[in-house]
Amino acid sequence: MKVVIGLGNALRGDDAAGPATVEQLRPRLNGTVQLFTLNDPLQLPDCLEGAELAVVCDAVCSGAAPGTLHRFEAHAAPLPASVRPALSSHGIGLAEVVELARRLGRLPRRLVIFGIEGHCFEPGTPLSPEVAAAVPRAAEAILQELCDA
Fold first, then answer.
1. What 3-state DSSP class applies to 5?
2. How many other CB atoms are found less than 10 A from the CB of residue 29?
3. What whole-number distance in Å separates Cα of residue 85 and Cα of residue 142?
4. In this structure, are residues 57 and 106 in contact, taking their beta carbons and an 8 Å threshold?
5. What is the DSSP code (8-state) at residue 81?
6. Any bridge partners for residue 131, and if so which?
7. CB atoms within 10 A of CB 14
8. How far is 125 from 15, CA to CA, in rounded Å?
9. Dihedrals φ, ψ of 146, to 5°?
10. Are the CB atoms for 40 and 8 separated by under 8 Å?
């Protein structure tokens, strides 16, 4: 089974990058892959259950230019310390949840993370132009990842 997960808050500007990417993929995948949008990263391990390949898309803050697309193979190694979640209102972010799932033996065989560099996370704002332009690129990269699997 393959899953694609968009992580983020659709009401906080660039934090909506993950869910926006999943919504672009929804009509193209037509039920062939399980799709999830999550606001709470603590829900991630449940979505990974039974997956052979999981792809997660989230907004990140690493200091790169807004709209930069990052790719990480999280099944092989922890996420780099330089890449932190863009926003975490839960006190725990994607990197910590991935490591928790690793310790619990709940990671899929392959876990690929696509991070879209964000910069505007104000409540009630739309995606910034740079992140909005990156969403279709992220969707294409995820489609390629699924095809290559």
1. strand
2. 17
3. 19
4. no
5. T
6. none
7. 29
8. 10
9. -65, -40
10. no
State both tokens at 109: 């065989």
Inter-residue contact 121 to 12 (CB < 8 Å): yes
Predicted confidence at residue 84, as pLDDT, reads: 58
| DSSP-derived 3-state class of residue 78 | coil
pLDDT (tens digit, 0 to 9) for every residue of the chain, 149 residues total? 999 999 999 999 999 999 999 999 999 997 889 999 999 888 999 999 899 999 999 999 888 999 999 999 988 888 776 665 555 544 678 888 898 899 988 899 999 999 999 999 999 999 999 999 999 999 999 999 999 98
Q: Is 85 helix (H, G, I), strand (E, B) or coil?
A: strand
Whether residue 119 contacts residue 130, with contact meaning beta carbons closer than 8 Å, is answered with: yes
- This prediction has a pTM of 0.91
Antiparallel, parallel or unpaired: β 2-7 and 34-38? parallel
With CA atoms as reference, report the closest residue to 57 among 12, 144, 116, 102: 116
Q: Which residues contact 97 (CB under 8 A, 6 or more apart)?
A: 41, 42, 44, 45
Tokens representing 149?
């699997």
| End-to-end Cα separation, the chain, in angstroms | 11
